[in-house]
């Protein structure tokens, strides 16, 4: 395979850093991996290389304000989660289609990277979408026994940091530093029943209802903190006109002790699960 670094320009002053994986024998399908909150693109490299070996043309990238994706002028707006979906995902998809017009394009979303498909303009440019540990993060969608930590996170930890420090330091979650408005959006999406909403609190649902492609949702049975299966099912319901289904991955079925929220993309993941995802993506 050929692996190269690319830069994608947004219309509002950001350079988004990406890595593209080009197969020796292409199968006609392009895949864009939209990452989780604060996760750099290198985290998805092993999975991207595996998919490329199956013939997929694969792109990983980082949202604005994360990793190497930063503003290039002083007039660029501060990063927000809504901008990740409405502007960054749009710029990446538009650029990919222009450079690979011969490919059928499908998406992969990890956690927030799957949720934001609902605010991506013209999201039916993706013919299909695989969500991995993507969830509806309204706090009441967690099982009762796990709600205290969820409430503390959305109502306490996130507001505390965006109010006092202007962002979320790396050490809190072990991910990249999160800019203030990103943290603010994350907090308000989790606290309010409106979930993903504009700054006036109006729910943004048109894109969720408008997507009509094929979708698969992977819920992880032992993911209690970030994306319990109950919340995965709730997100799937929002894509009401998609050809969708949920599949729960149980670590025992893959001879593993744990998968949790981040384990699917690690090199230690059972390759059977990766192969199953590749077979769905090529179908």
The percentage helix is: 25-40%
CATH superfamily: Alpha/Beta hydrolase fold, catalytic domain
Please state the second-level CATH architecture.
3-Layer(aba) Sandwich
Integer count of domains = 1
- The helix/strand series, from N terminus to C terminus, equals EEEHEEHEHEHEHEHHEHEH
**Tally of DSSP β-strands:** 11
CATH class: Alpha Beta
List keywords for this structure.
Rossmann fold; alpha/beta; 283 residues; 33% helix; nine-stranded mixed beta sheet
Describe the structure.
The structure is a single chain. The protein is α/β, with parallel strands linked by helices. The radius of gyration is 18 Å and the shape is globular. It has a single domain, classed as 3-Layer(aba) Sandwich (Rossmann fold), CATH 3.40.50.1820. Strands 1, 2, 3, 4, 5, 6, 7, 10 and 11 form a 9-stranded mixed β-sheet that branches. A two-stranded antiparallel ribbon has the order 8-9. It has 9 helices and 11 strands. The model has no long low-confidence stretch (mean pLDDT about 95). Helix 1 links the parallel strand 3 (about 30-35) and strand 4 (about 55-60).
Short description:
The protein is built from 9 helices and 11 strands. The chain has 283 residues and is an alpha/beta fold.
Describe the secondary-structure layout.
Elements: E1 2-9, E2 14-22, E3 29-34, H1 45-53, E4 57-61, E5 70-71, H2 81-99, E6 104-110, H3 112-115, E7 128-132, H4 147-164, E8 167-168, H5 170-173, E9 178-179, H6 180-191, H7 206-210, E10 214-220, H8 229-238, E11 243-249, H9 271-282
Parallel strand pairs: 3-4, 3-6, 6-7, 7-10, 10-11
Antiparallel strand pairs: 1-2, 2-4, 2-5, 8-9
